[in-house]
Amino acid sequence: MSKSSISASIVAEADIAKVVLMPGDPLRAKYVADHYLKDVVCFNTVRNMLGYTGTYRGKKISVMGSGMGIPSMGIYATELFNQFGVEAIIRIGSAGGLTDNVKVRDVVIAMGASTNSNYGAAYGVPGIFAPVADYGLLADSVKAAEKLGVHAVVGTVYCSDFFYYPQPDLNAKLRDLGHLAVEMETAGLYWTAAACHKKALSILTISDHIFTGEALSAEDRQNSFHEMMEVALETAWQNAD
């Protein structure tokens, strides 16, 4: 692996903002840049993990893909925090709904993430190193949702290393324990931010529901989710220079 998965030579020209939005899909990063940011410059194309910097209501904000899963999120979040001076990362991703009070297209703000990943063990904390959001970002996102008239549900999500989990009864257990949704990156982002002494938040849109079977198309997941994006942008704006 090269020293950095982000092109330092391009970054020298474009700069990366102190607050970065991170969807899993790099094409969603492009969508945010194209539709919400002004004076946009692409700062990364390495491995097609697209990254852009522009302005939103006069403040500099960046958006970049993270890829799928905790290891990929860990690579890019660590580099952004430690090599490029980023202070806060806000994940904007999709999740599978678990409870009756979240429906497809609803927004979920993750205050914490249960997980089956062993990634957190590397930090050497006896017992369990709990992955949780930065409270300031979380509070700002709740206020942003209220301002925009977006119904956002705050609670715990489950972050899995498996897209196709081999034990089908897990989802019922997670629902019974109050988890709102399941996804694959939030715990890794929260652990990385804590270890780097930075801030992180995960804002998710329910793209499918595990128990009702309702689901959005791949195109809808890539090009919609406007409410989540706008809540995240308002939150980023509150924390940007």
Distance between the termini: 33 Å
Sheet with the most strands?
Answer: 5 strands, mixed, barrel
Question: What is the H/E string?
Answer: HEHEEEHEEHEHEHEHH
Helix content: 25-40%
Approximate strand percentage: 25-35%
Rounded mean pLDDT score: 94
The radius of gyration over CA amounts to 17 Å
How many β-strand stretches? Answer: 9
Low-confidence stretches: none
Task: Map the helices and strands.
Blueprint: H1 8-14, E1 19-22, H2 26-36, E2 38-44, E3 51-56, E4 59-64, H3 70-83, E5 88-97, E6 107-115, H4 135-148, E7 152-159, H5 170-176, E8 181-183, H6 186-196, E9 199-209, H7 218-223, H8 226-239
Parallel strand pairs: 1-4, 1-5, 5-9, 6-7, 7-8
Antiparallel strand pairs: 2-3, 3-4, 5-8, 6-9
Helix pairs in contact: 3-6, 4-8
Task: Report on the architecture of this protein.
By secondary structure, the protein is an alpha/beta fold. It is 35% helix and 27% strand. It is built from eight helices and nine strands. The chain has a five-stranded mixed barrel, surrounded by five helices. Helix 3 (70-83) packs parallel to helix 6 and helix 4 (135-148) crosses helix 8.
